[in-house]
Fold this protein.
Amino acid sequence: MSGISGVGMAEVVESDALRTLHRVFGYDAFRGEQEAIIEHVVAGGDAVVLMPTGGGKSLCYQIPALVRPGTGVVVSPLIALMQDQVDALRALGVRAGFMNSTQDFDERRVVEAELLAGELDVLYLAPERLRLDTTLNLLSRAEISVFAIDEAHCVAQWGHDFRPDYLALSVLGERWPDVPRIALTATATDATHREITQRLAMQDAKHFVASFDRPNIQYRIVPKSDPKKQLLTFLKEEHDGDAGIVYCLSRRSVEQIAEFLSAHGVETVPYHAGLDAGTRARNQARFLREEGLVVVATIAFGMGIDKPDVRFVAHLDLPKSVEGYYQETGRAGRDGLPSTAWMAYGLQDVVQQRKLIQSGEGDEAFRRRSAAHLDAMLALCETVQCRRAQLLRYFGQDPTDASCGNCDTCLTPPETWDGTIAAQKVLSTVVRLKRERGQKFGTGQIVDILLGRKTAKVIQFDHDQLSVFGIGEELGEPEWRGVIRQLLAQDLLAVEGEYGTLVLTEASAAVLGRQRDVPLRKEPKKPAGSARSTPRGERKAKAVAAAADLPEEATPLFEALRAWRAEQAREQGVPAYVIFHDATLREIAVARPTTVAELGGISGVGEKKLATYGEGVLEVLAEQG
Ligand code: ADP
Ligand code: ZN
């Protein structure tokens, strides 16, 4: 670089970065803010990067690590994934290694020697290692090109077990003032952003906040009626043979759903904190390595999972916050291909979550915060407007369009109706039941009374004598449950005690006194269409348009390439996507290159992969004629 005179620093740097993008990664162009970020870090600047999952954060530190002299040190808490990350880089011809507690002394010695000899481009490091003087001393004897702090939200208050290790990372800036630092996270909130900046002492860094829209993910939230059956139908009709994640709240429901799906021919593994570490590691490895496996999991699963071809994320229980929902659904479609975020949500979810907050641990302030988080999540569930627009606004970003064309409310706009009278009927019933001191009645009893059902429990308590008995026959049971759910969501009803008894709120009085209307969302008769069978809205996402719809005639070739890839992956013991991503195989299947040079022009085929797999791919193409 120093030999070139008369050329601006920025230009030289830019072409170096771009050349590396072409040569090593085989990509044509940078995406979004990647170029600005990389340029800044390559020039020695610090950066704080907020970018959604799938946005392309890895390149933001990998390219500076390759372009600047020395080794790029990547701090990551995801020990179980380091081997895969290193394998993926090696497959690109990048000299990568890792150091964490899973290695024995000899393995570590080899990596140390490589580092000191300047033979590593990238070194992955578990954060706890940086609290050891031995590690700090080792690093100070090596040449470091950049420090990347991945999953930087781990420094935040609500963070994880890794928090103390992450807090200690502020020493990097003091000890290596001349080495640029880049902190990255997919967490979008201002509070987390501020905490990262402060805790890592990165006030002087440049900040990059990308759009948090994930246009290729279709968001759908359906009313819960028979969740197992709904899930199975969703899987069979829209995602047969696809890899995906199903989230449940409890270990027990994880086990039950996993068994149910397996019994119905869906290849499934469970994942929750109650399983022993060996089983968990095995199930995670299977999910990463095999194609089309479904993992049923609690939220313990998924952080840092960089499998690009997760086609769906399904929620059978309501997440506790919009942040959680966004993180979990964000694991779908990192490769930019169409994917679905599907959730079934019902009255019991609201009752259960409200109850948990009421009876849970923590002080009043904590309870209030949890309730606010839940309210935002419920507002997303009950909205009659575009879900994507609401998500983005929640994260303080302006949606490009009021209507995205790729969420259920845009695809099948829900109707609203004036639910004021229905609300009054429910609230009056709740008032009357309250007089029965000491008795606990849940939502079921209220619905039975409204519908005039003489059940044993109705008769036992003389509820058929109440003036409200049978006053709600104009609606059916699902509709009444929908009304109660929405009243809970709007804070016109509350949940009390361990039985989840319904009680009035301060706001209820205005409804009973006819001082306010209650607009409600009509329960849809049939669920919104699928990602594949419905035309996507006018605003077709670029990423989606590029590779989504595989032409009929390219399908056999695509399948043949996948079979070839599976064999390569098995032989080398790496996940299939380490060989080539689906998006790359699709492009090959469509373009049908006949020469090595043509194959090299496909996005995702860099120098090293061309040398390793070029012939193999061309053979598959030749065989398929
Ligand atoms: P993140 O870490 O932000 O979740 P990744 O770094 O894993 O995202 O990137 C997501 C996907 O996008 C990966 O499959 C990656 O190879 C691909 N990708 C990233 N940048 C580009 C680019 N400039 N051109 C093409 N594909 C890219
Ligand atoms: Zn929408």
In short: Residues 364-382 form the longest helix (19 residues).
